[in-house]
Amino acid sequence: MRKMNLVVIGYGGMGGWHAQHALNSDVVNLRGVYDILPERNALAESRGIHAYASYEDVLADEQVDLITVAIPNDVHESVCVRALEAGKHVICEKPVTLDCASLQRMCAAADKAGRIFSVHQNRRWDVDYLAIKQLAESGEIGEVIRIESRIHGSRGIPSDWRGLKAYGGGMLYDWGIHLIDQVMQIITAPVVSVDCRFDHITNDEVDDGFRLDMTFADGKSAYVEVGTYNFIAMPRLYMRAKDGSALISDWREKCQVVKCNYWHESDVLPVQTAAGLTKTMAPRDDITTTTYTLERPASDVHEYYRNFVKAMAGEEQPLVTHTQMMRVLRVIEVAFESAEKNQVIACNV
Ligand code: NAD
User: Fold this and answer.
1) Residues 137 and 110 occupy one common structural domain
2) Could you tell me if 339 and 215 lie in one domain?
3) Same domain (yes/no): 154, 101
4) Distance from the CA of 346 to the center of ligand 1, in angstroms?
5) Considering the entire predicted model, what is its pTM?
6) pLDDT tens digits, residue range 181-196?
7) In a domain, 17, yes or no
8) Is residue 105 located within the same domain as residue 151?
9) For residue 35, pLDDT beyond 90
10) From the CB of 12, is ligand 1 less than 6 Å away?
11) Is the minimum distance from the CB of 36 to ligand 1 under 6 angstroms?
């Protein structure tokens, strides 16, 4: 199969990543970039990358097969829809757009044009998430009960458009969309309630952190938290299952697992706490449990583009589907409603 000709729209942080990735790709050829800021286009040219003079020029170029949109969140819809109407396949950066009505219009444009349209959920290739997902799917520690997924930083929300509501800023859209998508890849039952609270430590306009609880129709639950003022970080991932627990303390670390071999302990030694003895909270011994560490799974984020290009040729289904995009965005919508009303919202997503 020939390499597909790609143009990246927006040559900022993530557009730069896509352009660089394309230069090393086995499935796409970087045909050029386009940014509304002349200095970004000049930078691309100085690096030997063709910069188009206008978006119209990109759309008029019949050699362009595929467009990746890496611009602020509020303008994803208009730029993606124009590309689809011009007959290009489209990869959009996350969050794909700001609400479900907007996403519906984007999906309708893709369906009408008969083009592949998907969102760059690149964190499906994060090895911490993959370790937990593979462990859950293996059934090794039994049925999953709850997943807790946290990202804690201490540098505040970035001072660019991410701090502004009009651009679709805030941490729920920025990191939440990844973490919610990851959880919904592991727990696949419908989401039946969402409870979300925002932090506004230095930014009143958008959330600079959030805490989100999701319950699922099969009784499982998940907690997703993003913090930008956490000088001590809580563990990245924690999973409780019927026959064990798993923990990834930090995204650089391996997954630790404690598997329960059998529940019954004949002779539990009580532990002394300040206020007295407890058997309930006494640590397990290594007869009734086995403790081990999982190797980090192999992962290659280039698989996203490889799959997308195969989907363009009709050889595979896109890994990130319209239905998945819609479900994740709907949870985000319900989370905004929950935070605004300060209450748990029942739903069926
Ligand atoms: P950025 O501010 O670094 O870059 C955005 C660029 O888009 C700027 O150069 C700006 O001039 C340009 N731009 C704005 N409007 C435009 C338009 N209409 N046409 C052409 N160019 C336009 O932002 P960023 O960090 O690169 O984020 C861009 C997108 O990528 C966002 O949606 C963001 O959420 C996403 N992102 C994804 C990841 C990921 O891991 N998947 C990481 C970072 C950012």
Assistant:
1) no
2) yes
3) no
4) 33
5) 0.96
6) 999 999 999 999 999 9
7) yes
8) no
9) yes
10) yes
11) yes
